[in-house]
């Protein structure tokens, strides 16, 4: 587990992801993989400092945790890259999740 974001790191995610995919396969349930790369994250560290960069990573992780289900597998691959495996999630359900995430991020940006 990554101590900064309280999310699984790459290795932890891969273990949890494999287990979740095996369950989906056995139960014949769909799964979706979402990949997030924070654009221009380096600029936050370079202009505002690493403490602000760390806070941005924590905030992003908090939003993912609050917007996704407990059964979804979320991880930080490294740097500014995050990933989420949505289990038992059809294309329509995945689209709804991504729209909900976009709304939450838009609302957070409006507050800033």
Query: What is the CATH top level name?
Result: Alpha Beta
Lateral arrangement of strands in the main beta sheet:
1-3-2
Overall body shape = globular
CATH architecture: 2-Layer Sandwich
In whole angstroms, how far apart are the ends? 28 Å
Low-confidence region ranges: none
SSE run: HEHHEEH
The tally of strands reads 3
Portion of residues in beta strands equals: 15-25%
Number of domains: 1
Mean pLDDT: 92
According to CATH, the homologous superfamily is Reverse transcriptase/Diguanylate cyclase domain
What does this structure look like?
With 112 residues, this protein is α+β, with helices and mostly antiparallel strands. It contains four helices and three strands, in the order αβααββα. Helix 2 (41-48) packs antiparallel against helix 3. Strand 2 and strand 3 form a beta hairpin. The model has no long low-confidence stretch (mean pLDDT 92). The two termini are 28 Å apart. 58% of the residues lie in helices and 18% in strands.
Keywords:
58% helix, 112 residues, alpha+beta
Strand and helix layout:
Layout: H1 10-27, E1 31-37, H2 41-48, H3 50-67, E2 73-78, E3 81-87, H4 91-111
Antiparallel strand pairs: 1-3, 2-3
Helix pairs in contact: 2-3
Summarize the structure.
Helices cover 58% and strands 18% of the residues. Helix 2 packs antiparallel against helix 3.
């Amino acid at each position: 587990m990554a101590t900064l974001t309280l999310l699984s790191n790459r290795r932890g995610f891969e273990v949890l992801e494999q287990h979740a995919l095996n369950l989906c396969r056995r139960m014949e349930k769909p799964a979706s993989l979402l990949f997030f790369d924070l654009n221009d994250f380096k600029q936050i560290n370079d202009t505002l400092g690493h403490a602000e960069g760390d806070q941005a990573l924590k905030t992003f992780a908090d939003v993912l945790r609050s917007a996704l289900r407990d059964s979804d597998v979320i991880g930080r691959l490294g740097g500014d890259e995050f990933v989420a495996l949505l289990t038992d999630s059809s294309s329509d359900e995945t689209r709804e999740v991504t729209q909900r995430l976009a709304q939450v991020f838009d609302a957070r940006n409006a507050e800033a």
